[in-house]
Design brief:
This protein is globular. Helix 1 links the parallel strand 1 and strand 2. The protein has 341 residues and is an alpha/beta fold. 46% of the residues are buried.
């Protein structure tokens, strides 16, 4: 039996589908009740010990997807993020330890743990920039600068050995989740795999919430007949990975023998403007073209995209979904209003 926490959410529901299709018995722990009919449901909160204890009976693998996601609105969200993400994970790990669990444990992590992506300076080589300054952003100078010479840096792919540098409350909780889970692995010997999702998109992605991803926000704007508003100059690079690829990566991790942290990414970075244009094209000839606004948010990073090499070599995962076809499918998918895990 595999337990999927957050199995009624966006990514979790696709993982449940993939596991069931592979012949596995699946139990879902979620506050919501809309789950695959072939999965067993335990409805409740992952931060509640009694609920978690009930969900863990007879389980030999755990896929921990339940989390509060997105950058949020402001610091008033901080306690909610800590409760859902950090406390919920701690309660789950405590109950696993109490039961002397010896199966596999997979954690949904995120590319946000890296903060800014990788960079190099033409003159000084690899560089690790600090947060971008308000003055630069207000003047439209969006590229991070070399801390030694002040010139614009060139982005490069991040691998799993890159330093963790969270730049938002959500990112800080994802780092803490990883630390808690790897401490659990060291203390118990349970193999833990942390999958660092990059920008996930696809059917069932929640829209019209403060926590929706940029692809969902753009899709909602287009569905309402409004032009997507692209912040900065639109040249921000991200790795957009389809939710079915993410589900497949989880299935591989749950049934294989690899452990540690892995990027889950397509390996083909795209600009935010390119993604907005793909959605607009998929929406049809009457859809409004994206507008590049020059606006910025201090919590945003400039570039972050992944090296998929370790996931390919060690985990045995390579993304398969086509970007243009995936964006067309996403643009045509029914809107989902409620936030998903």
């Amino acid at each position: 039996m595999i337990l999927v926490t957050g199995g009624a959410g966006f990514i979790g529901s696709h993982i449940v589908d993939a596991l069931l299709a592979g012949g596995h018995a699946v139990r879902v722990l979620d506050t919501r009740s809309a789950v695959n009919a072939d999965a067993e449901l335990v409805q409740g909160d992952v931060a509640d010990r009694d609920t978690v204890a009930r969900a863990l009976r007879g389980v030999d693998a755990v896929c921990h997807q339940a989390a509060m996601v997105g950058l949020g609105q402001d610091m008033l969200d901080i306690a909610d993020y800590a409760r859902h993400n950090d406390l919920g994970t701690a309660v789950l790990l405590r109950e696993l330890a109490a039961r002397r669990f010896d199966g596999r444990f997979v954690l949904a992590s995120s590319m946000v743990v890296y903060g800014e992506g990788g960079y190099r300076c033409r003159g000084h080589g690899p560089a690790r920039p600090g947060p971008r300054g308000v003055e630069d952003l207000a003047r439209g100078r969006f590229e991070p600068r070399c801390p030694r010479c002040g010139s614009d840096l060139e982005p490069v792919a991040v691998d799993e050995s890159s330093p963790l540098d969270p730049r938002s409350v959500y990112a800080a909780t994802k780092v803490h989740q990883e630390h808690l889970c790897f401490c659990f692995a060291r203390e118990t010997g349970v193999p833990v795999t942390a999958l660092r999702y990059h920008n996930v998109y696809g059917p069932r992605m929640p829209r019209d919430t403060p926590y929706a991803g940029v692809a969902a926000i753009f899709a909602s704007e287009l569905a309402a007949g409004r032009a997507p508003r692209v912040f900065e100059d639109g040249a921000q690079l991200r790795d957009f990975v389809h939710v079915r690829d993410v589900a497949r990566a989880n299935a591989i991790a749950l049934t294989g023998d690899a452990h540690g942290a892995f990027n889950v990414a397509s390996g083909a970075p795209r600009s935010v403007a390119e993604m907005a244009a793909a959605l607009a094209n998929a929406a049809g000839p009457g859809a409004p073209a994206p507008i590049t606004t020059g606006e910025f948010r201090l919590g945003d990073v400039r570039h972050v995209f992944a090296s998929p090499d370790r996931a390919r070599r060690v985990l045995g995962f390579t993304a398969q979904e086509d970007f243009d076809a995936g964006m067309a499918e996403f643009a045509a998918a029914p809107a989902v209003a409620a936030a998903g895990g």
